[in-house]
Automatic annotation (TrEMBL):
InterPro entries in UniProt: P-loop_NTPase, Small_GTPase, Small_GTPase_Ras-type
Pfam families: Ras
Signal recorded as keyword: no
The organism's taxonomic lineage, starting at the top: Eukaryota, Fungi, Dikarya, Ascomycota, Pezizomycotina
GO cellular component, one term: membrane
UniProtKB keywords: GTP-binding, Nucleotide-binding
One example GO MF annotation: GTP binding
Family matches, as PROSITE patterns: RAS
Protein name: Uncharacterized protein
One annotated GO biological process: signal transduction
Length: 64
């Protein structure tokens, strides 16, 4: 759908700096980006799923 396409292209732009003009839907894509959070370097991992009920829960994993 249009919404899923917009979300996926926005994630791609935020993580990779690339705007996708033509998006081909997949079951999932993953992105990694190194970021500064409160002066600490962290790796942000984003899993962009197809939006099905099977993948409806989000997970956040934080280091100890």
């Amino acid at each position: 759908t249009k919404r899923e396409t917009t979300e996926s292209t926005t994630l791609s732009f935020l993580a990779q700096g690339i705007w996708i003009e033509r998006y081909d839907p997949t079951i999932e894509d993953s992105y990694r980006k190194q970021c500064d959070v409160d002066g600490r370097q962290v790796i942000l991992e984003i899993l962009d799923t197809a939006g099905t009920e099977q993948f409806s829960e989000s997970r956040i994993t934080l280091p100890p």
